[in-house]
Write a structure and sequence with these properties.
heterodimer; A: mainly alpha; MetI-like fold; 2 domains; two-stranded antiparallel sheet; 70% helix; disordered C terminus; B: alpha+beta; six-stranded mixed sheet; five-stranded antiparallel sheet; 9 helices; elongated
Chain lengths: 558, 343
């Protein structure tokens, strides 16, 4: 028994606390280097004028240009229009999935997710194949629809944002307690009253969250605006033009800072709304079972079919175009588009896969460590780590990319050597998508009762053993889904990495943009098809693995 | 004594969760810490387990001071209300977990695990996952897991509270059986007085972070030191207002007035008309009748005082009946503290 009862002296730090301390440093140092410092530099650069002196010069120049205000107005117009359309459609669609008895719900929900498995320029690419000057509609029906510009961006972004809004609204509608509905019916409320008095209030916060998420996704979107915007300039493309086109980094950072403002406001509102979502559901809720109503179910089925057909059409035509000889003149089948003769051939695709794999591994390690520290720490440290971990959700990809140029392309930075390598791309993706991964990890950790740790400790395990043998195995499904999430986002991302690629180290989504830019649209389509294929393969693999482990789980993606 | 708590204090900010608690527990003893939620009973158990650090005080087991020994080195077994079986392990792996931490040889673990599985009547379940078992079965596994490492002390944190009434009763007996067989000192936290009464050798009744009374179940029930203890273990009619209230009442309670006094509902007698007892008799009017089956509760009003009487079987009395009630002198309990805090 003496072996068991060895007192650890109070003055000596307990090894478990040492491990937690080490983990905290392991999390916070990269967060500072790869997120906080670069962002601070962007802020500083925006105050640095051409000759190296400091001042508000960049701001006064930018803000006094009428062109700038046009761009701001354009961005807001697009973002607000997309938000209204996308959230409305996603709401009805989510309602159909969760609250009707229509057939084919599984297929519908899978099809609806398709747009986020593709880079955010594939939607625009598809629209151009459909409605562009050489699009099938204008060609075959001999119409003269002009898709480039405002409506092009809006439609492309509606499709791009749709699955993200659908996920949030679907989750909000899924958790329903049947008792308030029954109570309302017994009190004599009709369907319309029940909808406004019971349904809407119960998903209020999910609705607010989805509105601000779609707004953020749209106002920060670069790919679709670049491909289909034409002369219609928005903030994200303006940053790109200032930096890549005119090499005006300081003005670029001014616009980046200005783009931050609406995004941060949206982020704060979304967080506040999100935090209130859970309080509405009690433990002993009685799940709501949809009633049979032939007319309603048929209407919902029709609506869902239309939505999914449109999504399938826009994405599908890209796949189709990738097998066409000379769009739109010679539509016969060919594989030659997959024989990429410019932009480094298949290399960007391989780079993307490697970068995405590194990002997946690093992302999993970082967000789980961070979530673990937040879960186990006391208030002060918890709040700081929590704040920095979610902060990336408020940082547009363009801004983070720009920040990385400033910070890592500086010869004085000892980390300068990672600039221009695949590692900076992977790291950039880890911190660009840190918030979503972190939130999944936190949710998963919160579901693990503290009693598991305590039981394990009482049975003689130290913290390391407990993490290895209890915590991580329980989190396995979450770990897998976080890894796939990072992989998927890294495969399709464009906005953050656009500033960090070089001719020698290029990424697939950027390649698509460059191919399209060079007028090589069918090869761009082929490249997009390959990206979608790889992402889908990763998802299928994940689901097979989860099935293998016999775990049923709500993952980040499906 | 085997386990010894000396002046243990634990604060959470300004809240004193455990206030200067001292307690001795003998070897082979089953002790229940009983009290309402928020009384500090769970905190006290967690302090014993080493899951919380005490602000002050000392903790000895077999003469060794444990206050600076981490939970993982104490060698105690613990069972939580929520079962807390590791969902990533089978039943057998759960039970063997503590042994594998101790680097026990595989063959030995297998042997010990199958012996324990048998002991908790789950022989054919060893390969199953925790979620495939019922609540009662899961709690048996949790108990087996705690016992697998031959703990020098067993801690039970409301182990039966999440179970339904029937399972609770069976498991209550099983836990007590196992504890007696192994002779392992056990501390159990509960808010259920029936559990404490039926299982414990001694009950520690807690309130506001302090111990109200320690004693055998019969001591606490028949001789509660405070009205709080009396009320927590059963019901109590507090009769303080009858002391020195000589004008309105026909007879005075013959008891000195320095203590608070009371009587259990089952000890109050109803006198048939005309049969006049000498002392402690009062007229009262029935205001409520509750027939529970095996017993009935009669609530009466006597001046401003409400009195509860418990009788066997169904009662024939009705609301508005005027009765003569009697408080037998030998059944009146006097407390050391006034009863004004809890009615």
């Amino acid at each position: 028994m003496s072996a068991i009862l060895t007192p650890t002296k109070k003055s000596k730090i307990h090894p478990d606390k040492l491990l937690l301390g080490f983990l905290s440093l392991f999390v916070i140092i990269p967060l500072l280097i790869f997120l906080v410092f670069p962002i601070v530099i962007v802020l500083l650069k925006s105050f640095q004028i051409g000759d190296g002196s400091w001042g508000l010069g960049n701001y006064t120049t930018t803000l006094s240009e009428s062109h700038f205000w046009t761009v701001v107005a354009n961005s807001l117009n697009v973002a607000i229009t997309v938000t209204i359309i996308s959230v409305s459609l996603a709401f009805v669609f989510a309602y159909a999935i969760q609250r009707s008895k229509m057939p084919g719900k599984r297929v519908f929900s899978l099809l609806a997710m398709l747009p986020i498995f593709a880079p955010s320029l594939v939607q625009a690419l598809g629209l151009i194949f459909l409605l562009g000057r050489n699009g099938v509609v204008n060609r075959w029906l001999e119409l003269d629809i002009e898709i480039y510009g405002f409506w092009g961006i809006v439609i492309a972004d509606v499709i791009y944002a749709f699955p993200q809004a659908f996920l949030l609204l679907s989750a909000a509608l899924a958790v329903a307690d049947s008792r308030p509905y029954e109570a309302a019916r017994m009190l004599g409320a009709n369907k319309r009253q029940i909808f406004f008095d019971v349904t809407l209030p119960s998903i209020k916060f999910g609705l607010i969250s989805s509105i601000f998420l779609v707004f953020t996704v749209t106002i920060t979107d670069f790919g679709n605006a670049m491909v289909i915007g034409g002369n219609y300039s928005v903030l994200a493309t303006e940053i790109y033009n200032q930096v890549s086109g005119q090499m005006n980094f300081n003005l670029g950072s001014v616009i980046a800072i200005i783009l931050l403002i609406p995004v941060i406001i949206a982020f704060i509102i979304e967080r506040v709304a999100g935090s209130k979502q859970h309080a509405l559901i009690s433990d002993n809720a009685d799940p709501l079972v949809p009633k049979k109503n032939a007319l309603f179910n048929s209407a919902m089925f029709l609506f869902s079919s239309i939505i999914c057909s449109l999504i399938l059409l826009v994405i599908g035509i890209v796949v189709y175009a990738s097998f066409v000889k000379l769009w739109p003149y010679n539509m016969s089948f060919t594989l030659k588009n997959y024989n990429f003769d410019s932009q480094g051939g298949y290399e960007p695709l391989i780079t993307s896969i490697v970068v995405s794999l590194i990002a997946a591994v690093m992302g999993v390690i970082m967000v789980i460590s961070s979530a673990y520290v937040v879960n186990k720490s006391k208030s002060f440290i918890r709040d700081i780590f929590n704040f920095f971990s979610i902060l990336p959700a408020a940082i547009p990809g363009m801004v983070l990319g720009l920040a990385y140029i400033f910070f890592f392309n500086e010869p004085a930075n000892p980390l300068n050597f990672i600039y221009g390598t695949i590692f900076i791309l992977a790291i950039n993706n880890v911190y660009h998508y840190h918030a979503q991964g972190f939130l999944t990890a936190t949710t998963s950790l919160q579901q693990i009762s503290a009693n598991f740790d305590e039981t394990s400790a009482c049975l003689g395990a130290n913290l390391f053993t407990t993490i290895k043998r209890v915590t991580l195995p329980i989190m396995l499904p979450a770990i897998l889904s976080i890894g796939v999430f990072f992989f998927m986002r890294s495969m399709v991302t464009l906005s953050a990495v656009i500033f960090l690629v070089s001719p020698s180290v290029n990424m697939a989504a950027v390649s698509v943009m460059l191919l399209d830019d060079a007028g090589n649209t069918t090869q761009a389509a082929a490249f997009s098809t390959l990206i979608i294929l790889i992402v889908l393969t990763a998802l299928i693999l994940m689901n097979l693995l989860l099935k293998l482990f016999k775990v049923k789980t709500r993952s980040l993606i499906s | 004594m085997y386990l010894q708590l000396k002046n243990i204090t634990k604060n959470y900010g300004t809240i004193i969760a455990v206030d200067n608690v001292s307690l001795d527990i003998e070897k082979k003893e089953f002790v229940c810490i009983l009290g309402p939620s928020g009384c500090g009973k769970t905190t006290l158990l967690r302090l014993i387990a080493g899951l919380e650090e005490a602000d002050q005080g000392e903790l000895f087991i077999d003469g060794n001071n444990l206050i600076n020994v981490a939970a993982q080195h104490r060698g105690f077994g613990i069972v939580f209300q929520s079962y807390s079986l590791f969902p990533n392990m089978t039943i057998a792996e759960n039970i063997g977990y503590g042994l594998s931490i101790r680097k026990t040889p595989k063959a030995e673990i297998t042997k010990r695990v199958s012996q324990l599985i048998e002991q908790v009547h789950l022989s054919d379940q060893s390969k199953k996952s925790p979620h495939e078992l019922s609540g009662g079965q899961q709690q048996r596994v949790a108990l087996a897991r705690a016992l697998a490492v031959d703990p020098i002390l067993l801690l039970l944190d409301e182990p039966l509270s999440a179970l339904d009434a029937k399972v609770r009763k069976t498991l209550r007996n099983e836990i007590r059986e196992v504890q007696k067989t192994l002779g392992i000192p056990t501390v159990m936290v509960t808010h259920d007085q029936e559990e404490a009464m039926t299982m414990a050798d001694r009950i520690v009744c807690m309130k506001d972070g302090m111990i109200e009374q320690v004693g055998t179940p019969s001591e606490l029930y028949n001789h509660p030191k405070t009205a709080f203890v009396a009320n927590f273990l059963g019901s109590m009619n507090v009769l303080d207002s009858l002391i020195n209230n000589d004008n309105k009442l026909k007879t005075k309670l013959e008891i000195d007035n320095t203590h608070s006094i009371g009587i259990r509902p089952e000890s109050v007698e109803i006198l048939e008309n005309n049969s006049k007892a000498a002392t402690n008799c009062y007229p009262a009017k029935v205001i409520k009748i509750e027939n529970l089956g095996s017993v009935s509760h009669i609530q009466l009003i006597m001046n401003d005082l409400t009195i509860l009487i418990e009788k066997n079987g169904f009662t024939e009395y009705k609301v508005e009946d005027e009765l003569l009630i009697h408080f037998p002198q030998e059944k009146i309990i006097s407390f050391s503290q006034p009863a004004n805090k809890r009615g």
